[in-house]
Amino acid sequence: MRPQRVLVIDFGGQYAHLIARRCRELGVYSEIVPFTTPLEEAFSGCYETLGIILSGGPRSVDDPGAPRLSAEGLSRVPVPVLGICYGHQLIARAFGGEVEHGSLMEYGRTSVRIVERDVLFMDVPEQFVAWMSHADSVVRVPPGFNVLALTERGAVAAMRHAERPVYGVQFHPEVRHTQMGSAILKRFLADVCGFRCDWRPMDRVEELSREIAETVPPDEHVVCAVSGGVDSVTTAVLLSRTLGGRLHCIFVDHGLMRKGEPEQVVSTLRRMGIINLVFVRAADRFLSRLKGVKDPEEKRRIIGEEFARVFEEEAAKIPKARWLAQGTIYPDRIESGLAGSGSALIKTHHNVAGLPAGLRLRLVEPLRDLYKDEVREVARSLGIPEEIASRHPFPGPGLAVRIIGEVTEEKLRVCREANAIVEEEFKRAGVYDKVWQAFAVVTDSTWTGVMGDVRAEGYVVIVRAVESEDGMTADWYRPDMELIDRISKRIVNEVGNVTMVAYATTPKPPSTIEPC
Ligand code: XMP
Predict the structure, then answer these.
(1) Euclidean distance between CA atoms 181 and 172, whole angstroms
(2) Residue 152 shares a structural domain with residue 169
(3) Residues 127 and 215 in one domain
(4) Each residue of 272-291: pLDDT tens digit?
(5) Rounded to whole angstroms, how far apart are CA atoms 263 and 259?
(6) Is 395 in the pocket of ligand 1 (CB under 6 A)?
(7) Burial classification of residue 449, based on how many CB atoms lie within 10 Å of its CB (0-12 exposed, 13-18 middle, 19 or more buried)
């Protein structure tokens, strides 16, 4: 039986990943491809593509140079198609409907009324709330299409071709604010496309493991950089199942780890049956190269470069090594501009940019198609301790990106201790698993304090906690003030050299999650 997938064609919309994730949550493996991908490619390869979803996008269908689809092209697609927002307008335009700019704009929660009860809307009430974000609207459906639902202002909220399974919806079923949005998507996937809806992240991992077993010849070895995060530990454990003693893990302690992390990682990996583990204490090398460096991108570059060097030296000691395993996951590849529709480079991600080029090793990335929460699920099914499986993401360059300006030993101490307090208190309050990340940042500013009647200069520490589905967008977490009070008091009293604790209240965008 060939594995099934739904293809999400990305027209540059901010929700393309959300669509892909929702499909996976509904048990259908999804992949995102840029709109420039020839449609024939969708039907080649090992997957059986049973449906296509056209994402939203920032353009107007009639803008010069805006991505287009032809009715003829769409008619050749042998599987059901669902256009969302821009995708909906594209379908309308392709088949000769009318799309108007600016006359019926709707943003946020909008009421939608069902006009014809199609299979897509079996589970929703006649009137339901849907999330909209559109300046353009379909005001007349193309010949041969039926209106299925209307928005409050009279735009076409949903339509379908009378004879073929071609659908368009103006609203975003993938956004949680759309009432029964998942049920609408489920109907499309299960009833219209005919998916089995039984996919689990582990399925993809097993496929990739089989691929690895077939690709790595029996006399060649693999080196794996482990950082202690759930991604790299899962990669290592996964590979050790297939490769056993042919896997060599290298853990570089760059001195920028969280409190107690190096020891914890090493003991976990040993317990998980990793036989070959090299632990490199390299803190001095990294810290001396970071001396005097203030620029965030420069800090990232140096850490990436030094990491590559240390790693290269260690890997060179493993003569049969021909492969490099990395815990790269789907969003890493997207934000580094290596996948998706060529999204702009936001920050150099260490585990992608820091590839030791000189090693000439071939790359194995068994988690490359998974989102973070899917990796956690895989980790649990491999028996990786909960402490690592549910641990918040931690950037490759470590605490260096949580220190604004120069990384000094003192700022590093403050940062490490303050981060440990934030983690501890979030866990104690039972909200650690509710947030994507919670951490402390040491700024380059000081605040005049009075401590025991004496004037004292200390650092300003910012506590940041965010909620996010995949780190691509994030909102700041609204904490209980008692929790913030406890964290603030503990940082000032226990860490020392801190005279002000602030809480960050800016979402991503515009701010990134980590400060630098
Ligand atoms: P930003 O800060 O870019 O973060 O909004 C998005 C997510 O990625 C993590 N992050 C990194 N992870 N290497 C990593 O492996 C990096 O260089 C890096 N920079 C940021 C960040 O913690 C957040 O979860």
Answers:
(1) 7
(2) yes
(3) no
(4) 999 999 999 999 999 999 99
(5) 9
(6) yes
(7) middle
Residues 174 and 53 in one domain: yes
pLDDT mean over 39-68: 90
pTM for this entry: 0.81
* Cα-to-centroid distance, 248 and ligand 1 (Å): 26
Ligand 1 midpoint to CA 394 (Å): 7
Q: Which residues are catalytic?
A: 85, 172, 174
The CATH number for 466's domain is: 3.30.300.10
pLDDT(389) > 90: yes
Pocket lining: 514 vs ligand 1, CB cutoff 6 Å: yes
In short, whether 160's Cβ falls inside 6 Å of ligand 1 is no
Alpha helices in 366-468 (DSSP H): 372-381, 386-389, 409-428
Element at 20 (helix H, strand E): helix 16-25
Domain that holds residue 490: 403-503
343, 360, 389 - which closes a domain: 389
Cα–Cα distance measured from residue 472 to residue 335, given in angstroms and rounded to the nearest whole number: 8
Query: Is 510 part of a structural domain of the chain?
Result: no
Q: Which of 365, 389, 413 is the last residue of a domain?
A: 389
Q: Are residues 174 and 232 in the same domain?
A: no
Tokens read off for 205: 């991992």
Q: Which atom, in ligand 1's list, is nearest to the CA of 335?
A: 3
Mean pLDDT of the chain: 91
Structural domain total, the chain? 3
